[in-house]
Amino acid sequence: MKIFDRPGFPNPARIRIVLAEKGLEPQVEFVSVDLIAAEHKQPAFLEKNPSGVLPVLQLDDSTYIAESTAITEYLDNLDGEPKLTGKTPREKAVIHMMQKRAETELLDAVGNYFHHATPGLGADLQVFKSPEWVGRQEWGNRQRDKAIAGMKYFDAVLRGHSFVAGDVFSMADITVFAGLMFADAAGIAVPESYTALNAWRAKVSELPSVKNRSGQTFVTEDLRRLGF
Ligand SMILES: N[C@@H](CCC(=O)N[C@@H](CS)C(=O)NCC(=O)O)C(=O)O
Questions:
Q1: Where is the GST N-terminal domain (predicted)?
Q2: 214 Cβ below 6 A of ligand 1
């Protein structure tokens, strides 16, 4: 298997956590794609994933699988012992629901803020983003507010449960974790008053799959190129 990604970026980090959880890293060849140079918007990459985003999994039969959830489901089920996406119909449904909320209300909202209300990944990439329109920055700022509301929601969830979809670490936790990681990079602080969310984050940060392997901030080289 090959994975086209960029170490340190939030969606690639989701899959690196999954690979570590499943002990699959030795079976994967990583191919680094230069997001800041917009390599993922060029025809060679768009053939692999027409959405022009990372990560993408390439199977040995040359099937390409994009979308972090789809990649996670594939990797989690390879050994017939899923641990991140649920075993029973009920578990699968709850994890799917919470994961989707984590994407919509947090991770994607942070991404929209980052790409539309800030210089994002720089000039080469901006031409591929939504066209200039009045209110674009205002819309981006509302996405930041949406992300903070999402954090508040997950703080409330985590006051009642150990993990985002119940009592077991799952794909939904990985998505929330990536959302907070992206929030750090985009300069959106997690309010201190969200104590359950912050405590959960500290706990998840200590998991071996997260602590040792994911990379929890944008890699330094990319940060330098972005002028941070
Ligand atoms: N829905 C996609 C989102 C992937 C995504 O947005 N990846 C980011 C990297 S963290 C990306 O490639 N961004 C480049 C861009 O937006 O141009 C998934 O779940 O994998």
A1: 1-83
A2: no
